[in-house]
Amino acid sequence: MRLIQPLLWGTLLSLLCLPVFAWEVKTTETQVMVSNDIQRDGVDVYLVWFDLDSDPVNFMSLTNAAWEWQSGLKPVFNTAIDLPVFDSYSIPLNQTCPDTHRCFLAFIATSPDQPPTRSESWQASSFFPLSLSAGCERFPGQAVFLSCDGDTNRFYGEDNTISAALPEGDTTETEKPDIFKRVGDKLLFANGQAKRFQVINIADLSNPRLEGWSALSGSPRELYVLGDFYVLLQSNYVGEDGTLLTVLRQNQDGTVSTVQEKTLPGWFIESRRRGDLIYSVTQNRSDVIILDCVDCGVVQSVIDINVLRLNDSGELEEVDTAQLPGYSPTIAIFPNHLVIANHNPEENQWRTTQIHVFDLSQTDPLVALPILKVPGRVPSEFHLSVLGQQLRVVYGPADPTDGSTLAIYDLNSPKMALIGQVDKIAPGEGLFATRFVDDRAFVVTYERTDPLWVIDLSEPSQPKILGELEVPGWSEKMFFHENRLFAVGIDDQALENEEGGVWRVSLSLFDVDEPTQPSLINRFTPLAGEVNYSWSLALNDERALLLNWEDGFAALPIESSGNYLQIVSLENDKIEDAGLFELPVPIQRSFSIAPNVLGALGDQILQTIQWGTGDLQILGDLELATNLNWLKLEDNMLWAAASGNQGYYRLYRYIKEDVETPVERWSLQSGYDGLEMDKNLAVFYDYYPLTVQVLDVQTGALKPAQALEPTDMSNYEWNTRSEVFVRDGWFYVGEQRHVTQVLSEKEDYYYWQAQWVLRSWELESAKEVPNRSIPGRPLAFTAKGDLITQEFTAQGQLRLNLLALEAENARLLHSREMPCEGYSEVMWAPEVVYVTCQTGNIYVPVDEQEENEEEATTQLVKLNPIAGFSEIGRWTLSGYQNLRAVSSEVVLVASNYGGWWYYGPVRDVPINETGCNIYQLQSEKEPQLLKHLDSCPYMKNNIALTPTQAWMAEGFAGLKEVKW
């Protein structure tokens, strides 16, 4: 037996470090310390050590008879006394507690002649747990708490911590389409997030405006502008016939109308245009016999090529078709040839690539040449080239140790004869970027450094390597202009003061004027020294890179700790930083509008940005799509927040009569994890590290972001944090901290104990006050300012607690356990708490699921926290019901019969959600069904309920009202 287990002391002593001056009992291993902050007249005082697990309960009381501990429950003084204020008084402690028992110290002041076992008579009380299991108990007046959430706190074994290819000799116009197109002062944008085709007028750089739009039924992938017609190729949202062709036209009044809609079979891959013909490539999965492929037979996956022409009426007509065996096509177009490289269905490990070349120069727009097979992988369209009647290919090996190969084939020969090749390029290294330029090829491989290979193709039968340059990192995309190569790639070299690996987007400029001695002019790595990781869409899609050789600059989007547009200058024959512009959401493209003015285009915003004249400056800002997923209803106003990939960055105010157009809008430069509102303050926050930015919606003032804790989190112990609460100018968050104890050195058995604390900051000063120990996760604040928390007992029962927040402590007022047999859930509505208890076994075999659904029930209980969580009403709902939103008398619940489970012999059970129901709740009456919804909102912070309606924030679909 020990007084207190040593590891528990680490937890308890951390609580003792908090400055406390109140009615309090604390302890060290040998001393009890008590204090009193208020003069208390005529009280009986008790200082008691007790063991709840002894039989009978063992009480030891300190008495003034000899200032010693005596057996039994006795007051310190024989009669009631007037207890003065005192800061701290220490008393020796010599009691011991068994490791597995629940022992406490209690310091209680009661009304005269009242038994100390009646909490109603307590004028002041303080309890201090002396063991891990004791920390799970709750007594009125308790101010130090540990948590023991049932079996979830036990685990066994080791502690595993989870730590477009450009054509050569262009004689016929070819095009690789994009998702946007600029035509004069109009920007045409196929916006997938908004599910709209948008026409944007950019004549006024300071005020771009949406001129017209058309709703889309699919996910837009590519856009062509052919005369007055706009051709969209889309993937279908549902179904196997997944390619939609839509022809649109803008009317005189600015509106956009549909000229034609056409469906092609198969999933859309890509398309190319040559002259007035569009070559659409789709993927089909079906059993098809390829008659002209002797060895193919029956295949499971085929590639369809549809040749389309737009007639004078603006309708697409099918001109020709072809079908190829295989999957995962790579597509490249040249003045007179279409090349498709894809994997051979006969190979199981992607070791063979079959190359299909089509002659486009004949009367028949799709003449197939012999199929070519190469023993390796063609990474992208940039690894393919047609010059004259020669096909040039760079492919990676089937066996990585063999090295890559550059091969040249004769398109005029009956069997696509090999003319010449260079093989075993960089054995053991991966194949990355390739760029063909006339009679040269530039190839990048990588293992630890980035070898740039310069290969001479002037003698097709004897291609040879002229030069090699090794630099750290590697290149993904390369672009050529006047003996200069501009490359987008990765810099994996850490700086001197950096530890660990780095992986950052980099831009490189190479001098290849002397092919035998290529050299690196310079490399520029945005955010070097600031972040360890960054990524750009331009690494995968060259259309995301704006490269203007004529005006000497480049721009590309970068994502890391935020969203950025990086602009660089090439004017001095080197890459120089011309500005890193932070954006609130990611962008997909940038484009030139005027000298030193760029457009930054994303599915949520268009911004016009001036650069090259000092600091980057926003000229105009147009919102294109709004991802509304946070909602709050207050009086007649709806407050909604929009998020990008970096979190919430915009706040809107709507009136209920018009949810299409916000009355007011506020924008932040960067996104945040969450948002809470407190009267006229909107508080945006990040969790790790805790950072806040406060917006006063009354004045429009946006304060600078404030860090509430050190921004360097490298030494931070990652604790669980609760939801954030903002009240009366204070910022609160619960934090769960753990302490681990080895119960047996011979067995891999661990037991961990959790301690919740409430952290609090005054928003005005960003000053943190001492942490308060709290029992469980914070749930809500009452109108009075008391805190409600929820936790689970060691037996797995839900327990609710009400605490008064004092200057230094959170003192327990009431506590109630809810005997739930199954899963329980808690939600807060103003001044009431709703609890659901699901009964029945959710781990059921599939063949018994239907029967279980009929028997399963959910108890819905309404509690008054002010009155000790007394029960106001109780209702029984059939099936498993999950709370999604609550108000004082209306609840929205989702019917859900389980999830994907595997539990012993139980088989996987699919989710069977049957929609949402909105109920009116009245005491002693059956719940009244007000409305059934076929689909349910998933998030709980995007629903607002009133007695007659529900409001929902549905992402890019906007705000939706449901009435009953």
From TrEMBL:
Which Pfam families does this entry report, sorted A to Z?
Answer: Beta_propel
- InterPro entries named in the record: Beta_propeller_containing
> Please, which domain of life does this record's source organism belong to?
Bacteria
Identification of the protein by name: Uncharacterized protein
Native source species: Candidatus Thiomargarita nelsonii
What taxonomic ancestry is recorded? Bacteria, Pseudomonadati, Pseudomonadota, Gammaproteobacteria, Thiotrichales
